[in-house]
Design goal:
binds magnesium ion, two-stranded antiparallel ribbon, 2 domains, alpha/beta, binds iron/sulfur cluster, 299 residues
Length: 299
């Protein structure tokens, strides 16, 4: 039977926001993958997108601005058996969090990074985000944007992500598939989600995206990177926006492989031997001690 992943929390995004399409696709993807809530962690930073963990019934961490990726890295490396998904906005991941975004790709950490790409900072009243193209003036700007935009897919590719895709918040079937693929990929996955912000972005609306999206067909994403660059260049001078899986590499070792196999380390969740600074408890022993101290005795 399909699990329900909703919570009792009031979802307080603006009516019509593309984030509703994203959260419903997250419910569908998690349900179809039958993710166990106790073994799944959704990590967010700050922004409208940052509220997501409050609305999804799995373990959630709503962290600091731009710092979702370091938190997720610690969680995944402490217990690689957990399914970890990072959920952030374009400002959070590619502005203040850009260094962490690059570091995650270099490590090929086995997590999915989902980016709500609405090209503005919605929570703080619509300033230009790193993905807003230069010379574009959305309604909250008093002058056109003077910064050039970051190209998220290109940045992910040069950083080392091994699964790179794009989808649209209002196309739930496609977005659900992209989330599932990203989670199932063994390595760093990046999913750029085109997300209308109906309150502050009057240019990149649902209709804007619908008129320009071109789903990649006849495209094998398991290609040499130079061919992927060539494909992306084809689109750079055009109005069309490609969606789908653009790049996939299934051979690159993940960060866990590199650290735990090559260096013969164990994750803290698997360590039972006493060592300075390391846990001496197994996970089950820890849970039982936690229940005794915190749940029963109220410490
Ligand atoms: Fe959505 Fe924009 Fe409202 Fe934030 S400000 S909830 S991104 S419509
Ligand atoms: Mg944004």
């Amino acid at each position: 039977m399909a699990r329900e992943y909703g919570t009792e929390n009031w979802i307080d995004w603006c009516p019509g926001c593309g984030n509703f399409g994203i959260v419903s696709s997250v419910y569908r993807a998690f349900s179809e993958l039958e993710l166990e809530p106790e073994n799944t962690v959704l990590v967010s930073g700050i922004g409208c997108s940052g509220k997501m963990p409050h609305f999804v019934g799995v373990n959630g961490v709503h962290t600091l601005h731009g710092r979702a990726i370091p938190f997720a890295t610690g969680i995944k490396m402490s217990n690689p058996d957990l399914e970890v998904v990072v959920n952030g906005g374009d400002g959070d991941l590619l502005g203040i969090g850009a260094g962490h975004f690059v570091a995650l790709g270099r490590r090929n950490l086995n997590v999915l990074v989902m980016m709500h790409d609405n090209r503005v900072y919605g929570l703080t009243k619509g300033q230009a985000s790193p993905t807003l193209p230069r010379d574009i003036q959305t309604k909250a700007l008093d002058k056109p944007n003077i910064h050039s935009a970051v190209k998220p897919l290109s940045l992910a590719l040069v950083s080392g992500y091994t699964h790179i895709s794009r989808s649209f918040a209002m196309d739930s079937d496609h977005l659900t598939e992209m989330i599932k693929e990203g989670i199932e990929h063994d390595g760093a996955a990046f999913l750029d989600i085109l997300q209308p912000c109906v309150t502050y972005n009057d240019i990149h609306t649902s209709d804007f995206f619908r008129e320009r999206i071109e789903k990649l067909s006849d495209w094998d994403p398991e290609k040499d990177k130079s061919e992927v660059y060539r494909k992306m260049r084809e689109y750079s001078g055009s109005e069309k926006i490609p969606t789908g899986v653009i790049y996939r590499d299934q051979d690159e070792p993940t960060f866990s492989d590199r650290l735990f196999k090559h260096h013969r380390e164990k994750s803290p969740s698997q360590r039972t031997v006493e060592r300075k600074g390391a846990s001496t408890l197994s996970k089950d022993e820890f849970i039982s001690k936690f229940e005794d101290l915190v749940v029963k005795r109220g410490f």
